[in-house]
Amino acid sequence: MGAYRAEDDYDYLFKVVLTGDSGVGKSNLLSRFTRNDFSNDSRATIGVEFATRSIQCDDKIVKAQIWDTAGQERYRAITSAYYRGAVGALLVYDVTRHVTFENVERWLKELRDHTDANIVIMLVGNKADLRHLRAISTEDAKGFAERENTFFMETSALEALNVENAFTEVLTEIYRVVSKKALEAGDDPTTALPKGQTINVGGRDDISAVKKPGCCSA
Amino acid sequence: MDLWESWCGKFAKVASLVRDLSQPCLSQPGIQLLSIGKMLKPEKWRAFSIVMERFWFPEGAQINYLGGIDPSIRAEVWEFLLGCYALSSTSEYRSQLRKLEGSKVMDMRKSYKKEVVKESTDGSTEASVNDNEKTENQNDSSNNDTDTSHGHRRGSSNEEASVRSELRSEDEGMHSFRIDKNADLVIESSYNNNRSASIHSEIEVVHPDSVEQLSHSGSTVEIVDGLRISDVPEVPSAKENPSRGGTVTEDRMSEWLWTLHRIVVDVVRTDTHLEFYEDPRNLGRMSDILAVYAWVDPATGYCQGMSDLVSPFVVLFEDNADAFWCFEMLIRRTRANFQMEGPTGVMDQLQTLWHILQLTDKEMFSHISRIGAESLHCVRMLLVLFEGVIFDEALRMWEMMWAADFNASVAETLENDCLEPLVIQLPRQSEAEIGDPKIDDGQRNSTTSEPTSRSSDRMSKSGPLSKSTILIMNRHKIMKEARSIDDMIKIFNDKLLAIRVRRCIRTAMKLRKNTYTSCFYQNQVIKIKNHTVPDTESNHEPDSEEIQSHDENFSQKFMPWSCPLKNDY
Lengths: 218, 569
What we know:
The structure holds two protein chains of two kinds. By secondary structure, chain A is of the alpha/beta class. Chain A contains eight helices and six strands. Helices cover 34% and strands 22% of the residues of chain A. By secondary structure, chain B is mainly alpha-helical. In chain B, 55% of the residues lie in helices and 1% in strands. The interface between A and B is large, with 37 and 52 residues. Chain A: InterPro entries: P-loop_NTPase, Rab_GTPases_membrane_traffic, Small_GTP-bd, Small_GTPase. Chain A: This is Ras-related protein RABA1f.
């Protein structure tokens, strides 16, 4: 992993957004992935927050620019503006709160309305450590993800379970799509795209061609 | 005379609208209790209060302590600053008012309860209680480890009465939450099927710590019963919003429970650094106030960020009703930030902010524009008014802003009217709307559900001003370190901005003066141009020598931090 490298040292920059109801643990997923940190009392995200981390895919350094958005519905006017240019999204629900899973559909619509059709989306069931409180079975969520053509994973930001995997899988997937597309076009994506510019993931076929069901904790 | 005094002197001259009358002078119509840079001390406030007891102050009396308020008298002064009471009210009047407010809350609940009972399918509280049990049982089955509270919960209402948080009202079938570590409503999953049950249910809050135990050891759950939210307080019938006036529908109830849920989710993670909130009762108080507000103002409801705003009042006021009314007055000023359809108020403030910056610090404005960061990175700061930066500093910032706006809004100065167009791209106010809503003619305004966005626009003006001041005060950092929007967001999110409150407010007032002037000249231009809509590209151009010099040498000439100031703290 090429984590924690110098900020400007990267080959690709992918913008990824975190969405989902408030209180599902988006901010903690972000802090776990970018700072390996978990806070029991992080306050509600208002507007957007942001963090970056770089990982390595093949021999390339992929910098993820992750945008953490407010969960409350009425902030969507603000947060949806931040979807623009996103090539990946983690749509988070809380495995112990059914209503957050019910709302996934709306979030998905929101994402698809405001982003490129080829965005790589992963459905993330967070708080998987609260096994005794589970309200959404892995199967149900997996089934939903398959129907909606998204990746799926269960995570625990608290226990650092699958957080790395979730982000890495999304980023790797985006990378695959992009490099495949670049290969087809005969371009070297590294040179074709100026640094700092968000990469478009290209045609729908690219994604579905390489998409596979995500692994999951259960 | 040191530099500080010399600067103060200059400032006093410039801000001609602000007069330092250290002794209230009763013979003048425009009574002012104000001082530019000093803190309002208890002695002075007491002296002022004595005068207040004996005389009926004329309208337009002012209280402008831009130096902040001594913490020991903060609660008392805030009620005036926020407009809960007019300075012209007598203490007798105020105490009557206070009593009325207390009983009003109680009445609100009582009549709501009637409504619920009437509408409930079972028609009796007893039936509801049974439903409630059903609800609990359902939850028991789905949340095996959290059900230990039930027996305790049911039988413990009396002994817990003392810790229940309510707005000075008796508890008759009050509602409380039980949440798990996720700050979750345990009854959530079944509320749709148990509408009336939910209304009468007791939902308890499990102390967050208990969940930790629960998740890690799987052992006993420690239930802290103290944290309760009194549910469904009632709406004053006269002011009742139509949407609340109808029958208790299933939708409405599930929506309400969802609101309560969201409140709890945020309450348990608000100002957690304060020892004060280690006591679940205080969390309960916060939830209570938010719940009552959400109920009486369904058009606004609960919005994230409100918990940050209510927190200082919970800390400051022992009485929930007092805290509630102050909070309500604050939301009145900021309601546009929290509307259902989106935080339009914040968008407007952002526009104002950038316009101010454009007028005052062109270099930084272009830098920020160049990196494309003139968007929404400072939403949080505008929304929660710096709360969460540093608690004490935020309070200071608040009272200074209120003091600054108190002056502007109550005095109905030209300055005030002129600042309106500065909130650019908004439809201009009609003539009828220009009249300033008074701070209620000595009464606390009880029309809590009445939209007051125009006064809130007017009164929250020091928000963008202070914000732009913070930007300007950090110009060096921003110019040097913010090379992209990413950097800018980081600077904001990681609280890397230096915020020196007193200096900031003083500068904001200075900015106000300057933006007022430029606004005035802009207006002249606009008039000449037959009410051409202000164009940000052309109209910010200075139209007077004053503005030109202000633009050219702003930092030297107008920025007080360019000269060494005495440290205020």
